[in-house]
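Justification of computing resources. Each target in the renewal requires a structure prediction run like the one illustrated here; the chain below, 91 residues long, is used simply to show the kind of job we budget for.
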Amino acid sequence: MRLSLEGVNHKFLQGGLVTLVADKLSKAGWSWGWVSAVDSEGQMIWIVDAHRDNGKRFVVRSDEMLTAFLELERIAHELAVSALLGDEMGL
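Resulting structure tokens:
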């Protein structure tokens, strides 16, 4: 079965995925925030950060908001797996 995105509002889809990732980060104990800005070349960028009360903080810059949130989700997941395995990733 193939999923067709024809006729789907991509901004709506992206917003829904960002919401899912943000909810997952919150449930995992992360506080997060985001801001859009214009870089020195006039391009819009997204800056997303997540932090915990244990001093861990991550900041991601991307051309797309969804990409930035997905990168934060990946980092948070790797950190959680590392903690479960007893490894200290040095993140």
